[in-house]
């Protein structure tokens, strides 16, 4: 979608995505310098060298900017998690453990990093919010490997029961970090209890 909105000192931004990226980078810089709560739309506008009105042309307000950043980081996290499904195609319990561990320990890039919004960035971030969008992405990620696991072992684990547990475990281990070895021991203990 093309736009002819003025940018900074008369420069033009030719498309909506570019304008949004510039504002999101400015927001990241402000959040890094002042914190999320203290940052205002005025701060973001000043950093991006635009007016407040221009910011509001692209975003409804600070919550909308935060949602956009969360979405970008969440996409990056699940891109990394999808790579794990390729590493463990026939070992669903191990895949599940690795995914939970990865989500729990995923690190956000430096907030002032220029490549924070770069789709090809290998930096880590954590967009973890246990909401419907996140659960939908967990279901998409785990559905096929779980289906193969169920067929291989002639069992029926329901994805709709599994995903909320996976999301909560990732969040718990993020809030209460532990060593990787201890995490895997705990996961294997749960797995063994489930077999009894």
From TrEMBL:
Recorded superkingdom: Bacteria
Protein name according to UniProt: TetR/AcrR family transcriptional regulator
The HTH tetR-type domain, residue ranges: 17-77
Key words, A-Z: DNA-binding, Transcription, Transcription regulation
GO molecular function: DNA-binding transcription factor activity; transcription cis-regulatory region binding
Short name of one Pfam family: TetR_N
DNA-binding region: 40-59
């Amino acid at each position: 979608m093309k736009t002819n909105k003025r940018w900074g000192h008369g420069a033009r931004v030719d498309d909506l995505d570019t304008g949004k990226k510039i504002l999101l980078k400015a927001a990241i810089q402000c959040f890094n310098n002042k914190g999320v709560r203290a940052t205002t739309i005025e701060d973001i506008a000043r950093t991006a060298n635009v007016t407040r009105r221009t910011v509001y042309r692209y975003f409804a307000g600070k919550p909308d900017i935060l949602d956009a950043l969360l979405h970008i980081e969440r996409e990056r996290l699940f891109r990394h998690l999808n790579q794990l499904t390729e590493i463990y195609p026939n070992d669903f319990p191990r895949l599940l453990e690795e995914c939970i561990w990865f989500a729990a320990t995923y690190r956000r890039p430096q907030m002032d990093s220029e490549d924070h919004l770069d789709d090809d960035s290998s930096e880590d971030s954590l967009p973890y919010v246990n909401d419907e969008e996140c659960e939908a992405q967990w279901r998409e990620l785990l559905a096929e490997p779980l289906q193969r696991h169920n067929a291989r072992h002639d069992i029926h684990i329901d994805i709709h029961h599994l995903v909320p547990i996976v999301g909560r475990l990732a969040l718990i281990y993020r809030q209460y970090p532990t060593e990787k070895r201890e995490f895997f021991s705990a996961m294997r203990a749960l797995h063994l209890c489930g077999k009894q």
